Amino acid sequence: MNAPFKQVERLGRLTTALGADVLALLRFDGTDHLNDLFEYRVEALSTRDDLDFDALVGTHATVEIEAHSEMRAFDGIVTSARWAGVGENGQRYDLTLRPWFWLAGKRRNQRIFHDKTVIEILQELLSDYSGLGEPALEIKLSQSYPKLEYTVQYRESDLEFARRQMERHGISFHFRHAPGNHTLVLTDDVLAHDEIGARPFKRYDGHHQYEQEHFWEWAPERNLTTGAIRQTDYNFKKPDQAMETESLGDADYAEGQIESFDYPGDYLDQGIGRIVSDLRTAQERGADRRNRATGDCVSLGAGMRLVLSGDRIPGTGEGYLCLSATHHFVSEAYGSGGEGSDGYAFTGRYVLMPDTAPMFPPRRTRIPTVQGPQTAEVVGEGEIDCDEYGRILVRFHWDLANAYSMRCRVSQNWAGNGWGGMVIPRIGMEVVVEFLEGDPDKPLVSGCVYNGKNSVPYDLPGNKTVSTFKSDTHQGSGYNEFRFEDQAGREEVFMHAQKDHNTIIENDESHSIGHDRSKSVGNDQSESIGHDKTISVGNNHTESIGNDMVYNVGRNQQENYGKDHIHRVGNSHKQSIYADHLYEAGRNFEGEVFGRYTLDVGESITNNTKVHTLMAFQKMQVKGPGGKITIDSTGIILEAPTIWLKGNVIMGGSGGAQVPTLQMAAREGLPLCEECASFDEEKT
């Protein structure tokens, strides 16, 4: 077996978790990018054919290359290891190195972030990978970022979600390398990128003799891009506010102002919209100016800045930001003794842009779309939880954290200004959720569905002809309901009010009932009629009152009876008439009093009749101020101080002998008896 390889004197070295010099670097190729992942391909040599890939894959490996006394580390996670056969000097292996950020692409997730800035979201998202670097993440952001009410990672990897959010907000990323470590660096300003100083351009005929890192090819280029962005959006809280924005780029070439319009623009007010449109324009315009170079700047990588120096060409003295760097290194073959030295072996190809040009990541990451509606469970506090817009909270079935959504608007059958329909889904209901533009950040509840926990109001299919709207009493037991039965022969409209039922009709109300009507009131009933009331009963009308009845008639009351009127009073009957009382009987008038009959008349009584009969079965008395007449079974008794008789007196019966005397007294005005002797005295 060959002796172990020694890399200590080599310009290119490979260090892995297997130990020093277990794998020796033969060849290195790879590209690192601004706003993209690097991928390094390593060809290595070993004296062993039994390397433990389990101990290698998923660990850090570092390639170190020295050129012109500059040492550059290229660190990555071994994501692939392959035995490539036996070479002239040993066992060959191929390794692929990628950033730890690449591992985030292997974990897909669905989760919700509430009221967090994009920075807070990225920190929380990437915290699970913090052990993969020292540090794994460095944030060099200078802008302020607003709190986002609701942000969803939906059926996408952590990598896709992170890149989508960075592109959305204009945050760039690159990697800084060190032996055994690489760090994800977030920036939003060109000046936040590390500067490596000046690197010269040397013409091709003499570049190979130059002892410093330099470029020997440099080619500026321009690219036509979208030159203007127009956007608009909608905010339901301010539906009438202006939302359209426009941003123009700085291109001076022909067709440099080509405009792109998009909706929705991803903002809630016009002020923020202008910022977003400027960002989108900058993302488009950032693809305009490019410089493509070739050289041996091993220290130059994506995300680094430099100043072009050396031979005078367009752009000399200006600053540039490296967008991508492709590296190629070949080590001199190892001899049988395992030692040797490398010759001139590193070259690089670079894409740069002026550091004065817009530098924002283009929007390339797929935005997830919810394909169709989903269902979710209504959650919140108490039994009903909504805000002033009737928005509710839901929990999606895919939410492993048992979190909750943003406040979701609920589709109603009508929605006017102070009028329309409003039904608030309640805690525990299963609702149908749709998404505006398929955006998982914009849920909208469109309906409710029953499930094995929430059963239907009436058993099905037995009650399939029943249509109902049935509620449930909040913080109590009971319900309100409006129900239709459409089974032939049993058609019914049913309404149930758990407590009160109030009806307000601004104009007319009409009821037409083809058969019977029954009404039962458990307590009081009152009616107030502003004008007339008419009741027409085709047959009988019966009213039964268990206690008292009071009528108050403001003016007249008239009753017409086509036939008899029978009035029965179980106890007393009292009438108070404050003016005249007129009574008319077309035929007879008969009255019967079983007790006393008393009539008090303030002035006079007049009876006009053909025959007037007064009958008392025991005694009759007629009284006046001057005396009284008594008629009973013994006869008639006249009692008065004086009795005057005017006119002829006809006497019958046994008292006839006294008649002449009484007639004479009457003619002469004399007293009828001896007690009247004082009459003359009174007359005188």
What labels describe this entry?
about 675 residues, mainly beta, Phage tail protein beta-alpha-beta fold, Light-harvesting Protein, OB fold (Dihydrolipoamide Acetyltransferase, E2P), twelve-stranded mixed sheet, five-stranded mixed sheet, about 30% strand
Catalogue the unreliable spans: 336-341
- Our Rg estimate from Cα atoms comes to 56 Å
Largest sheet: 12 strands, mixed
CATH architecture identity of the domain at 106-190: 3-Layer(bab) Sandwich
Question: Quick recap of the structure?
Answer:
The protein has 684 residues and is mainly beta. The protein is built from 6 helices and 31 strands. It starts with 11 loop residues before the first strand and ends with a helix.
Overall description:
The protein has 684 residues and is mainly beta. Among the domains are: 106-190, Baseplate protein-like domains (Phage tail protein beta-alpha-beta fold, 3-Layer(bab) Sandwich), CATH 3.55.50.10; 223-287, Light-harvesting Protein (Irregular); 374-449, OB fold (Dihydrolipoamide Acetyltransferase, E2P) (Beta Barrel), CATH 2.40.50. It is 8% helix and 30% strand. It contains 6 helices and 31 strands. The protein has helices at residues 100-103, 118-126, 158-169, 270-285, 659-668, 678-683, and strands spanning 12-15, 24-33, 39-46, 60-67, 70-86, 91-98, 108-116, 137-140, 148-157, 172-178, 181-187, 195-201, 215-221, 228-231, 245-248, 259-262, 290-295, 305-310, 319-330, 346-354, 374-379, 393-396, 409-410, 430-435, 443-449, 466-470, 481-485, 492-496, 619-624, 627-632, 635-639. Strands 1, 2, 3, 4, 5, 6, 12, 13, 17, 18, 19 and 20 form a 12-stranded mixed beta sheet that branches. A hairpin with an 8-residue loop joins β18 (305-310) and β19 (319-330). The model is unreliable at 336-341 (pLDDT under 50).
